[in-house]
Sequence to fold (240 residues):
Amino acid sequence: MRITVKYVAALRDRMGRPEETVDLPEDISDSEALIAHLRETDTAAEALAHPSVRLIRNDTIVPRPAPLSAGDTLAFCPPFTGG
Amino acid sequence: MTRIETGILENALDPAAELAEVTGQDVSAGGVASFTGQVRGEAGLTALELEHYPGVTEAALARIAEAAAGRWPLMQAVIRHRVGRMTPGEPIVFVAASAAHRREALDAVGYMIDLLKTEAPFWKRVHTDNGSYWVEAATGDREAADFWLDQMASEDA
Fold:
């Protein structure tokens, strides 16, 4: 399945790109498997695995692990620092 | 019925004008509490840049204000948050609540600013003369939010 992956703020800098389209193998169905898949080809993706990283799936903040479906947009976010 | 006003501001935030909107609006309100956060000029900071996640941030602010209105009997609940580039002393965030009694108003403001820190997708970037860096989340922020969430969970139990 194909999904859109976004990298926000410090994670955008770390990954060196704001977003990308990823074609996932059949057996990858959640955020944690996606991170493992990304780490196979990009050592920077190690940062996504940190427990403090938050997820926004299709404009909703969701807990990890987040299930994934074709067409989803998943954003990896550093801890929030507003206020 | 609580009047709830939340939103993101791309340009200037005027806390005095925001507070004037909340004060004197409802004769049954005995107290108006507010918090203004402003850019702290420390450690060579020349500017602070606030990034957010459009769409999700607005929904998060509304949800936080609605949760406060559900927890305390408020006449008004207001959250305004800046994004973009700001200089030391400039207001970043304004939170206010009005209620019949001071304790409800004060607690609602504390709840809203504490929850906002950990539940609304904003990210701060510090600019200095020697470059820029992303601000790391403070562990105290998580604890402050958990204080309210634990308290509300124990009241629900």
